């Protein structure tokens, strides 16, 4: 027959879990990484266009102009992080459509001939 565990043991186990649960909750409350800055997104835009036929048109000024429009939009932080990392990737189809729309709407203003 097994001996019952001392009464202090369950309490000690619960006490040990408190910091772990608090850490998990605080991380969840943070919501992940912060929204990338316009400068970070501009650098990423230039990475996306590097090696393409549009690379020459994507000057620092053009990338900054498009980045400002993207960061000021309703795009998710996740999509902006992808772009800032130089990835041509979006969180979902809604963000993909919004990214395309923002670039289309601002292309003439941002990329001067």
Automatic annotation (TrEMBL):
Keywords: Signal. Residues 1-31 form the signal peptide. This is Lipoprotein. The lineage of its organism: Bacteria, Bacillati, Actinomycetota, Actinomycetes, Micrococcales.
């Amino acid at each position: 027959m097994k001996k019952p565990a001392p009464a202090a043991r369950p309490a000690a186990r619960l006490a040990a879990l408190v910091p772990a649960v608090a850490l998990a909750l605080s991380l969840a409350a943070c919501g992940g990484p912060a929204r990338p800055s316009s400068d970070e997104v501009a650098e990423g835009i230039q990475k996306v266009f590097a090696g393409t036929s549009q690379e020459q048109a994507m000057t620092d000024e053009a990338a900054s102009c498009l980045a400002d429009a993207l960061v000021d939009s309703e795009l998710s932080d996740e999509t902006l992080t992808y772009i800032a990392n130089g990835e041509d990737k979006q969180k979902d189809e809604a963000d993909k459509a919004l990214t395309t729309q923002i670039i289309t709407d601002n292309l003439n203003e941002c990329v001067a001939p």
